[in-house]
Sequence to fold (90 residues):
Amino acid sequence: MNNHWLKKIFNTRDLLQMGHMQHVDDENLGMGWLYYAIARMYRPHRIVCIGSWRGFVPMMFAKAMIDNQCDGELIFIDPSMADDFWTDKK
Fold:
């Protein structure tokens, strides 16, 4: 995991609002380290993540899969009806 990637996470305010115990001041991903470590250790070829609001958890899993340097698939299903965030094609 590199510092540039971490800084992008901490500069995206929406990714820090869901109580994963992140701390911006010391670039601590909180529970994000756990999500990342699980995928690094088990090296899954497929991960299904249901519900995430802004994508913090799937991003941690995806980064681990990339760092594992093996092919894999991350399926993200967000059943939340909170807003239309995921309808924007950007």
The beta strands are 46-50, 73-77. The CA atoms of residues 38 and 61 lie 8 Å apart. The mean pLDDT is 81. The chain is about 35% helix and 10% strand.
